[in-house]
Amino acid sequence: MSLIGHFKSCTRIFAILILTFSFHEVIAQQKKDSTITKSVKLLDESQIPLLVTKVETYNFKIDRDKFLLQRSYDVSRIEKTLPDIIKKIKVFKLRFEKNGNNMNLRSLNSAVIILAEVEENLSGYKTTLTEYVSQLKKSNADLNKILNDAELKCNVSDSTLRTQLSEILNDGNKLNKAERQILIKINLLSSRISVNLLQTKNLSSDMVYLSISKKIKMWSMEEAPLFKAKPSQYETSFFETVTKALERSGKIITIFLGGKLSVVVLSILIFSLLTSWMISNMRRVKKMDDAESILAQINFLKRGVFMSSIFAFFTYVPFLFANPTMSLLHAFEVFRLGALCFLIFPFLTKQSKLIWFVLVILWVFYALDDILLDSAFGERWGLFIAGILLIVIGVKIIQTRNKLFVGLDPSPATKALAIFAIIQVLLSIIFNLTGRLSLAKIFGVSAVECLMLGITLKVFCTLVLEAVYLQTEAYQSSRFSDFINYKELQFRLQRYLWVIACMVFFVSFIRNITLYDVLTTATSNFFYETRSLGSYKFTFASIAIFICIIWLSSIISSFISFFFGHEKAVTGGKRSGLNSMMLLIRLAIWTIGFFIAVAAAGIPIDKLSIMLGALGVGIGFGLQNIVNNLVSGVIIAFERPIQIGDQIEIGTKSGIVKEIGVRSSKIHSAEGSDIIVPNGDLLSQHLINWTMQDRSKRVEFNISVPYETDIESTRKLIADKLAKNEHVLPIPKPLIILQDFGEYAITIRTLLWVADLTNAGEVRTEAMNDVKTVLTEAGIKLQVRPMG
After folding, report:
1. What pLDDT band is residue 239 in, cutting at 50, 70 and 90?
2. Rounded to the nearest 5°, which phi and psi values hold at 746?
3. Suppose 751 and one of 257, 610, 700, 716 were both cysteines; which one would form an S-S bond, judging by CB atoms 3.0 to 4.6 Å apart?
4. Is the dihedral of CA 152, 155, 158, 162 positive or negative?
5. Stated pTM of the model
6. What are the residue boundaries of the Mechanosensitive ion channel MscS C-terminal domain, all occurrences included (predicted)?
7. What is the widest separation between alpha-carbon atoms in the chain?
8. Predicted confidence (pLDDT) at residue 19 exceeds the cutoff of 50
């Protein structure tokens, strides 16, 4: 066969194949069309209303999902911050890989803190994106149900409804495509975050492991002993090491504060409010007539309100950052030290000024040494000389502890603080001599920090008391200040401040010796480890929360009792119903505090009901009187038969109501004693209240005159004389009546009213003296029983 014949045969076969394929395609399309035709059915009129309702529901669902897709799944903030976070992780990873073994404990701790912040941010992003994915998947599943609804593809005769069905399908398909695109974008972003989160955790755990390893190794000899060390053994000089450390610390502070903008803003806001408050009080006091005597009672605020506020700010602001890096702490301490120098310099004696100057220089040296990454030959000798100087300073402080300040009370903790610092310095010198440089730095820094922190806390506590004193004096004419006894407030507040100061000192010391992580871990394990008592599971954290909330409720209750107390009412003779309202508020605080404590501690309700049942049994057997007094206290608070400042008599007891408590009340007697009366007795016994309506009281006295006396003129003389007495009330007017015809004389009884019962005795004495004087001048003698 020729080539052309072969070609024709092939062409014929190819044409047959094309026709066969086309035929099959046509048959398939016809089948598909027939299927579609079969699936699309014509709805009858009864199904149209249901379809219309479904169309409205689907339209609402699609519109709502469109709105949520535009507003609720914004990941721009995460996309904006993620590159910086990834850059931080790469920098820390590169630095750790290159200089990991050379990093000291401080630098490792700073890196772990910053990585913990990064890990927290990434975990937050991961949680947010996971929620987005979950919401999008649920929304997309609901949307697919709409798109697969066969009724949307039905043939309807109404053209408007047919258009709406078409629009739903079009809008649904577009929304479906958009949701899938957003879902892909979020999944990719979530994957990047997961990878970097895993790297952060691994890097942080490696640094923690290296830190633990260095803590173990630092007890062995790290370098040559001090007297055997040579400059050639160190690669860089002390100056170069300090320069690099300052640069690195600046970067660490910038990175750390960059992730704490909210805390920075909050700190500035608190500083502004406190500064404005103190400046306002100072201006108000300076405008008073007795401003000089008021300001004579304060020291630091008078020296400078703004500098005092700066000092206080850099004292409390580290606690707002929870776990700041050591570089940031030292930066805060630099500003705090400058403000402290300004505040205390005028109060230093000539000798203590020199001590203070040397102490400041030593603190600067130890602070710089604490942030060094590499060791240097000059650092070794600097630590030795600084340790000797610090011991001398500590001895001088002990010798002259009562002569360090002028105009300031010496602290009883000065000697103990100096001895504690000296012990640490001695350890620092010993470790430096034996080549244990890390321990030498740790104890040297801790020693100077303890001294400085002790002085700082002393000044800070004094500043708080001065600020409270300034507040009470600036608003001494206000109703609120009328209830404040500053002396008692100072005693209570000073006690709480010193407890807080001791806790701050302890935590700071633990942090200085690099045991802060150990403390937090041990504390967390102790409080959050699950324990069992029979079938009941509990943790010490839940118990601590319960006790703390109850304690806080009692503190709030006692402060309310203190601020709206009794002293002014008792001493001023004023009747006050405020205490009854305060009693109800205190009861409410206790009740709310109890239920909040139960809820916060996670105590099961069934266990609480068992406890209340046991309490009910206890009440039935032996607590009847206590419960009676408690209920009586509530009744007294509502009915108010007595109030603060009332002059009452109950049984053989009398006095002024000083306090109405939950269980008992206090009555201040005329002899100066305080009588504790159970509230049940106040309701069950006959109670005489002299001041329930007003404070007026009737007093009386008798005189005896001879039988030959003109009674009417005598009565008129007494009445006229009493009318001239301004302390005797004209209404009701004094009443002079004949009391009795005695054996030797006629008894005349005089009754008069005084405005305030606290002056009744004095007014009665004055009235009797006036009556005797006027009768003597009129020649009327007072008759007494003859002798014998």
Report:
1. confident
2. -100, 130
3. 700
4. positive
5. 0.66
6. 699-781
7. 184
8. no
- What amino acid is encoded at 206 in this protein? D
* Burial of residue 87, with CB atoms counted within 10 A of its CB: 0-12 exposed, 13-18 middle, 19 or more buried: exposed
DSSP assigned state of 787: P
Tokens of 227: 């007297």
Q: How is residue 698 annotated by DSSP?
A: E
SS3 701: strand
- Tokens representing 318 are 């580290």
Return the structure tokens found at 212.
Answer: 């633990």
CA 669-674-676 angle, 5° bins: 115
Rounded distance between C-alpha atoms, residue 391 and residue 703, angstroms: 85
Whether the Cβ atoms of residue 193 and residue 129 lie closer than 8 Å to each other: yes
Query: DSSP alpha helices (H): ranges in 259-375?
Result: 261-286, 291-295, 300-303, 305-316, 326-344, 350-370
Q: What is the DSSP letter of 772?
A: H
- Stronger pLDDT, 204 or 155, i.e. the higher one: 204
Amino acid at the residue 199: Q
Cis peptide preceding 732, ω within 30 of 0: yes
Kindly give, in sequence order, each residue whose CB lies less than 8 Å from that of residue 593, ignoring residues fewer than 6 positions away. Answer: 549, 550, 552, 553, 554, 556
Residue tagged 């009452």 (tokens): 648
Q: Degrees (nearest 5) of the Cα angle 166, 171, 175? A: 150
Each residue of 590-613: pLDDT tens digit?
Answer: 778 877 777 776 766 666 666 666
Does the structure show a pLDDT above 70 at 395?
yes
DSSP string across 128-165: HHHHHHHHHHHHHHHHHHHHT-GGGGSB-S-HHHHHHH
Distance of alpha carbon 748 from alpha carbon 710, whole angstroms = 12
Phi-psi label, residue 149: left if phi above 0, alpha if psi -120 to 50, beta otherwise: beta
Predicted local distance difference test score (pLDDT) of residue 421: 93
pLDDT exceeds cutoff 80 at 364: yes
pLDDT at 430 over 90: yes
CB 691 within 8 A of CB 716: no
Residue pair 168/55 in contact by the 8 Å Cβ criterion: yes
Cα 579 → chain centroid: 27
Q: Give, in order, the Cα–Cα distances in Å from 356 to each of 330, 447, 654, 775.
A: 18, 15, 60, 80
Tens digit of pLDDT for each residue in 401-423?
778 888 777 788 888 999 999 99
The whole-number pLDDT of residue 738 equals 85
Rounded to 10 degrees, the C-alpha dihedral 106/108/109/110 comes to 90
Cα separation of 103 and 213, whole Å?
12
